[in-house]
Amino acid sequence: MGFTEIFVSTHDGALKRAKALDGGVSATDDALRIPGISDFEIEQLGDLAGAAVHAAGADYELAMVDVASDSLLGVPPAMVRALAELLTYESEGEGDVLEHVAEQWAAEDDMPFGSDEARGYVQRIAELASGVDENDRTGLYVWAS
What is the pTM of this model? Predict the structure, then answer.
């Protein structure tokens, strides 16, 4: 299995990044590259994040962005909000929500990493999600090999 890269970009920028990724470009500092997972595991994370911030049942399915790239998917706004909320969400008696989501995600079938590594990934994904600005026409994108 290859890797999945998550990044914030405009639509045009995302298409350019997808083309570069299709060509084998290396990782950049402004993106998160996770080896051994697919877009399916990102959708699982979205479902877990939504449930954790009491927004279960929203649309957390990644969608094809453009016919120019089969590998590039867009993260729906509800999922972006749920992921971003993991950074600040407070709940009574549930402890650290972000850590809880990371533990649940790491426990999913066939995950190639444990909860400690998952926590770093979830933290970084939440930070990326919080950087999405609709006024700048940016979105959160997932590229999966």
Answer: 0.93
